[in-house]
Design a protein that fits this description.
Number of helices: 8
Strand order of the largest sheet: 3-2-1-4-5-6-7
CATH superfamily: NAD(P)-binding Rossmann-like Domain
CATH topology: Rossmann fold
Largest sheet: 7 strands, parallel
CATH architecture: 3-Layer(aba) Sandwich
Distance between the termini: 41 Å
Order of helices and strands: EHEHEHEHEHEHHHE
Shape: globular
Amino acid sequence: MDLGIKRKKAIVTGAGRGIGRAIAIRLAQEGVTVGVISRTKDDLKEVVEKMGGKKRGHVSIVADLTKKGVPQKIYKEIKYHLGEIDIVVNNVGDALNIKDPLCPLEDWRRVFRMNLEIAIEFNNLVIPYIRRKHWGRIVNIGSTASLENNGPIPYCSAKAALLAYSRSLGRILATEGIVLSTVLPGAVIAPGSYWEKAQKEKPEHVERYIKERLPLGRFAQPEEISGMAVFLCSELASFCQGAIVPVDGGQSRHYFGAYNLGD
């Protein structure tokens, strides 16, 4: 299937591991030139090799996007190498191990910075160009935690804010040839992920979680999320403005909130 995005230029944040890595590789397979960003140099080196190497024009930048002014600096650098950007995948996000709902406001700000503000900053940078071109794709990687109590409260709140922002801005941009959508992954396991660590540190908790929460009896692989994200980056997603797409193997409970399946 031709997704119609060959020779487009993309940015993927949090691309060193997991979902971001899988998205960057799949975009490259579709002929997209990709700028990948992560805090870990070795991870980025491996990703670029999987994408076909720097000889194909891909760019990797090691950066901590939570620091003030860094998204703007990184965007400028990627744009210098690739030219104007057509696609942004805002994948970076983390609960930062902040679990206390009564944590200091500064901790709340850190979580919101990681999961919402960085995406807003990159979007604000790319939207003026794609507006002029009347073509662009923005995919925000959210979480099922945005719709239900499925994680620490600061994290759930930040992801819910990202979802509301995405839905609203997607509608505003709809008439301008721009598709902004959101993917809501379920529980994903990948090297360095929370669930990989949990398997080693608290296997009984993981076993119970799988049994009680995951209908398929397993975690998702990053590649099972990346396919939907890349589709939403494509020409075929032309009617997906503001779309919210759960990719969670039936994990989320909100689907059935209004129904009694036993009747």
